[in-house]
Amino acid sequence: MIAVEGLSKAYRLGTIGSGTLAEDLNRWWARVRGRPDPAYRIGEEQHARRMGEHVWALHDVSFDVGEGEVLGIVGRNGAGKSTLLKILSQVTAPTSGRITLRGRVASLLEVGTGFHSELTGRENIFLNGAILGMTKSEIRRKLDEIVAFSECEEFIDTPVKRYSSGMYVRLAFAVAAHLEPEILVVDEVLAVGDARFQRKCLGKMNEVSRGGRTVLFVSHNTVAVQSLCHRAILLQEGRLVTEGPASTVVSHYLREAYRSDQPSDWAAPDAAPGTEALRVRRVCVASTARRPDGLITMTSPIEVATEFWVLKPELHLHITYVLVNDEGVIVLTTGCTPERRPPGLYRGSFSLPANLLNSGAYSLRLLIVQNENQVVYENGSIASFTVVDAAPRARAWVGREPGVVQPPLPWTVAPL
Fold first, then answer.
1. What is the pLDDT of residues 293-319, one digit of tens each?
2. Which of 53, 77, 160, 171 is deepest in the core (most CB within 10 A)?
3. What's the pTM?
4. Can you tell me the distance from the alpha carbon of 71 to that of 229, in angstroms, rounded to the nearest whole number?
């Protein structure tokens, strides 16, 4: 259905035109004769040096998509994902390369494109549907279904300028979600609305993916990519790095994106955090599941290891950690057994069981405690790590579940 061969797209940096044809001709004639650009002002030397530079948003990208296949496209911000979809949707033209499309293409690149604030919701459904390639008869046939999906029945004949942002987004996604093209191009539309509406969006995308249509799906939700897509490609700085099964490509992407097991090291006690009596030499957070990609996932046990110097004898000191999530919520506090230790280098560790922490970013707050209750040193974030939700799910909801912990609690259901 889609064949991409050697696709490249370059954008020119800086100002492209001066605003008038006469000034553009004068600047071109000056360049031809090797003279200074007459449009430059004093102090624009840096701007002058940048003129003529290009950035390659895509460079020599090639891949094929079969009929009824759902292809995921992953990569960091700026990797070229949206540029690729804009070229496939014929919003912009490639610099070089060739694209072959077999079938009608519908694009969902920006939710709400084409809505007019003065028109009612009903009128905007017809306007937006026409922009997205639907015929008038198709829109009439699906009108009730679109309105019901958007949950805006009460306000459908009210101008959309009076809608809340959530209502606006719900109506726009409802129109796009009911397209029936041979090829559907989707770019980060599952991050719209509240959590309940996101569940509906993901369920609708799951239904589309099972309906035999060819779909190109861009999302930073790696669980959704694994659950909805057959194959995936990874873009990095405009180049296609790898392609293959969705789980393999997502694992490669996460391995590059999250370096959770990098230790914090201090070679000498003088530069290490701590007090004159106790200094921390090394803190390492790693998964004990020995995954090949080194990721810390929700289903893997986590070990936090600490090496520390005891510099003074006969002191009642011990190390305590406070685990904090990315919202500043304290998850738990733990510390080693308080003992009087002779001077030397020690290693202490503790483990967090598998299937405990929810996905997200976490940091460790270090406390050095004396006499069991006196904090003599505190480091607000001595180490950090990210727990990744890397397992595909068979059910419709593939977003992040709320909560700090996510243990698999046993359930029993029996008839009464």
1. 778 888 889 999 999 998 888 778 888
2. 171
3. 0.66
4. 6
